[in-house]
Amino acid sequence: MSKKHYIIPIFVPHEGCPHDCVFCNQNKITGEESKVDSDFVVNTIEEYLGTINKNDATLEVSFFGGTFTAIDINKQRELLQVAKDYKQKGLINFIRLSTRPDYIDDFILTHLKEYSVDIIELGVQSLDEEVLLKSGRGHTAEQVGDASRLIKEYGFILGHQIMVGLPGDDALKSIDTAKKSIAMGPDICRIYPALTIKDTMMEKMFLNGDYNPFSLEKAVEVVEEIYKLYIEKNINVIRIGLQPTDNINLGKDVVAGPFHAAFRELVESKIINDKLFNELNGYKGEVTVTISNRSISKLYANKKYYFKKLDNSLSDIELKVNVLEKFDINSISLKSENFIKTIII
Predict the structure, then answer these.
(1) Which residues form a coiled coil (predicted)?
(2) 58 & 178 share domain
(3) Run means of pLDDT, 10 residues per run, the chain, 345 residues
């Protein structure tokens, strides 16, 4: 049995970041406003270690929130030294951080190697120059490629963070960004729909009518296509959608955009129901769909939204769903008088 993977998050809100991207308010997104020092890191790690069975766990300290490699070098050393000490003692297994592609070079990567960093995630967001410009990113697509190449050359695990629906973006640009990202060879990826957050430039653009966010349905459709591209190349998509917090929620600091607390499940639901449609379209009669009780939430996500669309589109078929406790979580069985099929989900 594989060990459970636990993230010990250290949020470094906006510290070191040289730009104010139009979508960003790190204090809102992370829910953190206090400064982070070595004592804070120690206390956070100890708090997590006190609740985790280390013998059954893979533990990772992750520095999120700001542009870590743009922080003052002495502050980087202060924070990383704590994580390195815990790693050397065998109390944690990995160290991860996120940063901008224009704050990666040989000096920075040599420095991170000295502190036993394992994973570097780049805030790519888009690889379309117009979108990067309108979003105030302050870097180019070429710099993403250069940073990705260097990170891989130094032997780090490379992550890309992609955001769909930014100013100037559309479905084709988002899909093209994913294709260009894949060509750079990331090991892992996160995909986020762009949300309009309070007290950001994007909020002003939205209120002034200069920016129209993706609808929830469009965002799911675009992310579905992107997700499938990464999966086809065996790139691990470790997150889809922003983590809901007290602030990041409808009626709170999300002003507009395709927010859903279970966005990934919506994407997976659409993929599953699309596969069922492709398999069943053209048939007539009764079809029994057998699925694991651990997968039914994906089939029925968002109050059966995509399942109902499937049912309505297959007007000549009567769908019956059979939920089993002891059934493969990664497959669905289809059975009628004329066929028995298994599809992988």
Answers:
(1) none
(2) yes
(3) 84 67 64 75 95 88 89 94 97 96 96 98 96 90 97 98 96 98 98 94 94 96 98 97 82 90 96 96 95 96 96 94 95 94 92
